[in-house]
Write a structure and sequence with these properties.
Blueprint: E1 4-6, H1 15-21, E2 24-29, E3 34-39, E4 42-47, E5 50-57, H2 62-70, E6 72-77, H3 83-91, H4 99-102, E7 107-110, E8 113-116, E9 121-132, H5 142-147, E10 155-166
Antiparallel strand pairs: 1-10, 2-3, 2-6, 4-5, 5-10, 6-9, 7-8, 9-10
Length: 167
């Protein structure tokens, strides 16, 4: 089954379910080398009069290096049968393992941006804004103790959704 490109403004999905419960793969790089990671934090909406996706990546994640270098990334959403694949992609580092190969994922490219053929929905994004979450910004300091005991604050990326690919 191949993908159809749809207008981002016509996208219908339940973000709390898709991102928070079903997870997604954040993938970046180029046709020579790319990496992916599982994410369950993020958002989809409108910012600066554009459809956007927001993702959060810890500084030690290998995929962050690819996003920073290329300035573009994809968000791939899968059917429930891929939950084990997404779990593995969240546990092992691409620095140590070719997890794309290990998971039997087929990499394809949209204008040079990697995504996976096995996905049911793909958002192709270009970074509009990035900034590190800071300790000073928290209104509830318990959040720091709970989510950042090692002070490895996430980098926030707001990406303009350039294309939506749907099966």
């Amino acid at each position: 089954m191949s993908f159809t490109e749809v207008n981002p403004m016509e996208l219908e999905l339940a973000p709390f379910k898709k991102i928070g419960k079903e997870w997604m793969l954040v993938t970046a790089g180029n046709e020579e080398k790319c990496n992916t990671m599982t994410a369950s934090w993020g958002g989809i909406g409108i910012n600066w009069n554009s459809p956007v996706a927001t993702i959060y990546i810890r500084p030690q994640r290998y995929t962050k290096e690819f996003i920073d270098k290329e300035g573009k990334f994809s968000l791939c959403f899968f059917e429930e049968s891929y939950k084990e694949v997404l779990s593995l992609c969240g546990k092992v580092s691409g620095r140590d393992t070719d997890k794309i190969k290990e998971c039997n994922l087929t990499t394809n490219y949209y204008k040079g941006i990697p995504y996976f053929e096995e996905a049911s929905l793909v958002l192709i994004c270009s970074t509009l804004y990035q900034n590190t979450i800071s300790k000073e910004g928290f209104q509830d300091e318990k959040m720091i103790d709970t989510y950042y005991p090692d002070n490895d604050f996430h980098e926030m990326y707001i990406g303009k959704i350039e294309a939506v690919l749907k099966k």
